[in-house]
Amino acid sequence: MNWARRVGIGLSGLATLFFVLDATGKLLQMEPVLRSTQDLGWPTSAVVPLGAVLMVGAVLYAVPRTTVLGAIYLTGFLGGAVATHYRVGSPLATHVLFGVYVGLVMWAGLVLRYPAFFKAAFSRPGKGLPKV
User: Fold this and answer.
1) Domain membership of residue 15 as a residue range
2) Tens digits of per-residue pLDDT, 15-68?
3) CA-to-CA distance for 14 and 8, rounded, in angstroms?
4) How many domains does the chain have?
């Protein structure tokens, strides 16, 4: 296994760990999670559904066969987090863009784990996967 694949596995593991821990805090309705959810303008009744949605995305991302679907799904989730923080006026570099940072780690891990897939997906027509 080359260094890029190892780094990709590490980055993907880090992103997965973050998503699972975040979802677990929501599903267990921990006090800091409930408080910060209210501070962001969300009702506390939204915490468990958000945790369930996030856990589904984390599982999709963690399973190799569905990892690209999970990354797309979680990118949408992170976009909602960015929009929420922007709407309430959170600090740009530390709060608003945090979802972007997590998304970059997640996608970097994927690209490093499966470089051939991304080379084929983003190459010019006729230059990607061989025709069958």
Assistant:
1) 3-114
2) 999 999 999 999 999 999 999 999 999 999 999 999 999 999 999 999 999 999
3) 10
4) 1
